[in-house]
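Hi V.,

Quick status before I head out on leave. The structure for the redesign project is tokenized and pasted below; the design run finished overnight.
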């Protein structure tokens, strides 16, 4: 199951390959790994039909990803690293997900490029499903994942992980949308993790934006539960969201569930329960199925099924 990002995992995601990545070159000072996934999946919902209700409720959502990760030792106190990842969706839609490089020191890791904001390590606490979830968090633009022009620092100090970032953006119209953020988490030795973060900046001319995030998780044997809470102000618009997640693993099968809620100026925008079952044959192959129970009037439930091979 996908667990909250604990202290050492943040830096490991920057400088090392994925668990299934293949090391294509390695010596005493440098290494290069390649990894990715092939994921065939489909979604069934009336939301996929045309506005007039015609069309097919079935929608293919298959995708593939490939990533390259490398690191090279410069001296005993300095290591360089880089990562590139792209995604191809059904219909030949291609996009870059990650593209960044940096260096790791005894004081932490510094990097620049297209990468996650500091807040994503908090979002990951409760964003555990393969199918649905992940809503009710990324309100302010600077709190999101895979952000371009992003300077990031991440440091690990015993059980404490601190991450900070600064995103430099300039729209075509000339409106500066710079943002900054900081997040921290503490992993207790008995399975409890707590985190908090803040994002500030602007979302266009004279539009101030800020967001506060809280996260908590607890893991005991095969049981995992987590929650996140976010509150944001974008100009005169107030937004609140939260996610509650739980998972239980039985041998190769994991049962998972989430509840996602988002409120914008006291109007419900996201409100659903989702359940999911995942069966992992081994570290490479898994199948999953999830069902979303939508609580918003006029919006439909969804079923999503997939099979994923990691390499």
């Amino acid at each position: 199951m996908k667990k909250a990002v604990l202290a050492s995992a943040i830096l490991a995601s920057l400088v090392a390959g994925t668990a299934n990545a293949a090391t294509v070159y390695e010596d005493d000072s440098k290494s290069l790994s390649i990894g990715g996934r092939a994921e065939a999946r489909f979604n069934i919902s009336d939301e996929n039909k045309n506005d007039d209700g015609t069309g097919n409720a079935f929608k293919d959502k298959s995708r593939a990803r490939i990533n390259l990760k490398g690191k090279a030792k410069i001296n005993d106190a300095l290591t360089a690293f880089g990562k590139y990842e792209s995604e191809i969706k059904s219909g030949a839609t291609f996009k870059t997900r990650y593209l960044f490089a940096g260096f790791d020191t005894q004081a932490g890791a510094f990097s620049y490029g297209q990468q996650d904001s500091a807040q994503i390590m908090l979002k990951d606490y409760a964003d555990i499903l393969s199918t649905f979830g992940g809503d009710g968090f990324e309100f302010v633009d600077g709190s999101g994942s895979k952000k371009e022009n992003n300077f990031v620092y991440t440091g690990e100090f015993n059980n404490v992980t601190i991450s900070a970032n600064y995103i430099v953006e300039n729209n075509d119209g000339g409106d500066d949308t710079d943002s900054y953020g900081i997040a921290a988490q503490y992993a207790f030795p008995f399975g409890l993790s707590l985190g908090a973060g803040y994002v500030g900046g602007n979302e266009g001319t004279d539009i101030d934006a800020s967001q506060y995030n809280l996260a908590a998780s607890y893991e005991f044997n095969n049981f995992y539960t987590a929650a996140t809470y976010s509150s944001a102000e974008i100009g005169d618009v107030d937004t609140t969201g939260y996610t509650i997640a739980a998972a239980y693993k039985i041998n190769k099968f994991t049962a998972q569930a989430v509840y996602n809620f988002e409120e914008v100026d006291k109007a419900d925008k996201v409100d659903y329960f989702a359940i999911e079952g995942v069966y992992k044959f081994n570290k490479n192959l898994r199948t999953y199925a999830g069902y979303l129970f939508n609580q918003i009037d006029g919006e439909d439930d969804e079923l999503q099924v997939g099979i994923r091979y990691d390499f």
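Above is the designed sequence. Helices lie at 7-15, 120-123.

G. will cover questions while I'm gone.

Best,
W.
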